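pasting for the record
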Amino acid sequence: MMNFCKIIVTKNPNIFITSIVTEEWDSFIKSDILPDNIKYAAIPNVIPSEIGRAKEFAGFLRATLTKLEGPVENLIDGIGPLMKPSVIVYDTYISWVVGMDNRRNIPVASYFTMSATVFSVFLHMDLLAQNNEQFHAEQPEKSSMEASEEEHFPQ
């Protein structure tokens, strides 16, 4: 997403971009060198930490969909009318952004963060159905790595 922002401001230096991140992410990336017209704005850590997040990804998604909206609204409302965003670009999966921005009369643009391969599958889904292509995913037996992990790290 930040590379996308950098491309935008190199094409038009009159654009100012604020990327909203958690305080944790702000601490990870605050040393990044950014163009003068890009900045980070931090909200409180209301979602699970990046460290260990993969252990409970469903909880992370749930928190993203239920706990981020309030802090983001507070940040946007605190900016004031002089710096009101002219558009908000958001991750497609964070659906509450649309309602939040509609209440403030701010246009939104969805940014789909999946890989080109996934996009291509979605784009050509009609061809897959037309040609009766089927995807089969089977649950493999436990790998030796999983068995070793269970042995060394019992639950």
